Amino acid sequence: MQSFDAIVIGGGTxxxxxxxxxxxxxxxVLLLDAADRPGGAAIGGDxxxxxxxxxLAHLLMMLDPRVHAGMDLDQHGFSYxxxxxxxxxxxxxxxHLVLEGPxxxxxSGSLSDTDRDAWATLRKRLLTYAEALVPFRALTPPRIARxxxxxMLGLAKIGLGLRRLGRDEFxxxxxxxxxxxxDVLEDDLTxxxxxxxxxxxxxxxxxxxxxxxxxxxxxxxRLAGEAAGTRAALALPKGGMGTVADAMARSAAxxxxxxxxxxxxxxxLIEDDRATGVVLTTGETYRAPTxxxxxxxxxxxxxxxxxxHLDTGFVRHTRNIRSRGGAAKLHIALTARxxxxxxxxxxxLVIAPDINAVETAFNATKxxxxxxxxxxxxxxxxxxxxxxxxxxxxxxxxxxxAPHDPRDGLDKARKQMLANTLGVLExxxxxxxxxxxxxxxxxxxxxxxxxxxxxxxxxxxxxSVEQMLFLRPFADVAQYxxxxxxxxxxxxxxxxxxxxxxxxxxxxxxxxLSRVAA
Amino acid sequence: xxxxxxxxxxxxxxxxxxxxxxxxxxxxxxxPWAGYTTATVLEDAETEYTAIRNTASLYDLCPMIKxxxxxxxxxxxxxRLTLRDVSRLPVDAVHYTAWCDDQxxxxxxxxxxxLGETEFLLCCQERHLPWLADSAIGFDVSIRDATDExxxxxxxxxxxxxxLTEAGFDVSALKPFRIARYPFQGSTLxxxxxxxxxxxxxxxxxxPGLALPLWDRLMEAGSxxxxxxxxxxxxNLARIEAGFITTNADFVPADQAVREDRVRSPYEMALxxxxxxxxxxxxxxxALLKERDTQSGEWAFVAxxxxxxxxxxHAILYDGRxxxxxxxxxxxxxxxxxxxxxxxxxxxxxDTKAKGGIWAEIYALRELHYVKLMMKAExxxxxxxxxxxxxxxxxxxx
Lengths: 518, 398
Ligand SMILES: Cc1cc2nc3c(=O)[nH]c(=O)nc-3n(C[C@H](O)[C@H](O)[C@H](O)COP(=O)(O)OP(=O)(O)OC[C@H]3O[C@@H](n4cnc5c(N)ncnc54)[C@H](O)[C@@H]3O)c2cc1C
Known about the structure:
The complex is a heterodimer.
Chain A: E1 6-9, H1 13-24, E2 29-32, H2 65-70, E3 80-82, E4 87-89, E5 97-100, E6 106-108, H3 113-137, H4 152-163, H5 167-177, H6 181-188, H7 192-203, H8 215-223, E7 226-227, E8 230-231, E9 236-237, H9 242-255, E10 258-260, E11 265-271, E12 274-280, E13 285-287, E14 290-293, H10 297-306, H11 312-319, E15 327-334, E16 348-351, H12 355-366, E17 375-379, E18 393-400, H13 410-428, E19 436-442, H14 444-451, E20 487-489, H15 503-515
Parallel strand pairs in A: 1-2, 1-14, 2-10, 4-16, 14-20
Antiparallel strand pairs in A: 3-9, 4-5, 5-6, 7-8, 11-12, 12-13, 15-18, 15-19, 16-17, 17-18
Chain B: H1 18-24, E1 29-33, E2 36-41, H2 45-54, E3 57-60, E4 65-70, H3 74-81, E5 93-100, E6 106-116, E7 119-124, H4 129-135, E8 142-145, E9 151-156, H5 160-166, E10 179-184, E11 187-192, E12 201-206, H6 211-221, E13 228-229, H7 232-241, H8 285-294, E14 299-306, E15 316-319, E16 323-334, E17 339-347, E18 358-366, E19 369-380
Parallel strand pairs in B: 3-13
Antiparallel strand pairs in B: 1-2, 3-9, 4-7, 4-8, 5-6, 6-7, 9-12, 10-11, 11-12, 14-17, 14-19, 15-16, 15-18, 16-17, 18-19
Helix pairs in contact in B: 2-7
């Protein structure tokens, strides 16, 4: 049998980035993924088109430039169908507002000059703060302890970056750091559509409403991402998100990673308090001195390792990782182009008429209820490419908020969620209901079952201030290492969090390479 | 069920033996223990202590916290929870053990009774249900606070085997740390040869409904030697002589400590002999291995013989006359050894090299005025008092 230096569990984008980086660092790596194709949430259809063939993630905004370049994705079939995607804040009356350029650099539509100016100022400020966070993303989080092996140079640079904000701006940064996004938007802006779409973006993928504390911080995190070399931009890969997964898989293979699909790890072998291998559900065993899990931290620690190898306090921390999913995913196939009252279908369409619409949709989930009027982000991939005359039009939407713990059971909630979502769609695109030939709605529980994300959470564990940086997923394991020698974490559940990015996997690999002797 | 909202009307509960103890408690001296009313002294502490060391004594153990741990995963669970190897504890035997948090700091010590292959009773000073319950995640085990379900009685002193025989319970073959069962009024009396006095003694476990008949039977059987009900003051004196530690007297449990430097590891409480690194993972193992390998423990736990006859309670210890090196946690004038004895935390390495000698700063209250005494102290072996009769099987007849 071939021998490996490292086994990476989970072939999502983080697992593939991690395995490739380790291979480039001279390790022989076996990558095991449970699904029949690698890519995790980025897996696309296998040629056939249809509602159920659509990937979970539909837009690129967090792709780590180190991963993009280091994996030579462009050489392996990756390119963009659209960069710098605009966003249309849909109005039910057709009075749409279009945010063009990264993070709404310019606004078109009816809007007062006061709001235009206020947004320009606020946007600049938010981007400046987001920029200060960028270097953190590529760093192993520091540990608040003596002799913790922190990257002092890297930290010093970031410190300098924050210092450059100047005293007043730094004070403002601190003021805004933990604030809720609604307060900021209501202080500075008056236009409901603009406030609605910004509030929506801030809480997309979070279990937070716009009035929840810290909701601005997750927005800053989003703005700290990039696509196609532009900060805070949105992009659509050519061929859909599946091409990102495919390009990564090809890159991994080309660099020498041995990738095995259909291989679900059942447990991690621990001998003498060291991770020494993995056992698959089929009973097959693989051994290596380094085991990296790019499956989520909860599953890895509680199921693959098991509580008996861990201390009780540690198990408590692991179980307490907050990981509630609030996002549902809607896929529909349409017999004709829908009409959102004239909106450009090649933009991202957001239905979030005002801040309270987002907050109200969030409120329902607290009581296990389905919101009457969910808010959503819509992408129509066939508006960009691919739809031949006979092909259906496809619509992909992330709909919030779905109850993480539905009071009346999952099946009822799913049905209700679909009905309510279609109701909102009908209001904005009259007649769309009649065009639907196929539909699928994935609740957070479905997402957990299909993709293995704890609770169906976007980030494999809520990305919020108490679970960020050196607290992600919690302090004891924030540096990718675990108490079990030879076992490392590399999924979105680790710093810097989720998105189709590869950042966590790449960071983990760098940490491992710097810590594990060749 | 009783309306729990009225709990405040009786802030302290009474034990199954209360009726008898209240009748005997002529001084009416009571103190709370784990939510129960317990006697500190009934008549005279010295006489009660004398019963422990010379005849037979009865002490109410009901408030001691007891957890019943059962299930096919019980051994694995307890091995992960505690320091010692539970798979080596035979059925119907007891061992003294302790458990730690993730950082390898002590949460409590206690006695673990193995009542069956998969049935255990863990007895301890403090309550730990949340910790025990969270420790059960991933194990096939169930845990119940059984404090109320079992009445416990401690029978200690050189005549206790004879008293039990007289009462109809032949314990002559029962070895230290072993358990035996006897029929009693249609129920079962469980007797373990355990105790907190370092002397010959037994602990008796009975369903609460039979507590008083058992009490009466023992009192009657022990009348020939002057058996006595004793309070916690006398017991505490005996346990210090025996060198036993008490949670929250000799160390602060890690989950209760507020001050960072109050927590103690088994190495720092001289309990490291319990640690079994070879049995697989247990709570605190990684931290304790590191502590062992780097010798990072900052404290030593020592027994002291101090000059003079004033108990050195909470005395500060010095190397020479000015360098603070430790604190006394428990102290007493020991009648049986005729010396002033103490248990103390001592900062390493002064436990082995206090150049100027160890001195205890004692404040003696003499007619409203404290008098400060600087007394020479010496580290001695623990226990201070360990009569051979405590282990002899069959026990001698006194
Ligand atoms: C509804 C929704 C929509 C989203 N939309 C977007 C978006 O548009 N843009 C964006 O950037 N992000 C989006 N995200 C977030 C993004 O999908 C995730 O953050 C990202 O996929 C995390 O990548 P990962 O590699 O860490 O994990 P995953 O992509 O979840 O991959 C984990 C992999 O591990 C494998 N695995 C799990 N357990 C085992 C096991 N025991 N043995 C072997 N393999 C195992 C799985 O098969 C999977 O391939 C969305 C998330 C959700 C929930």
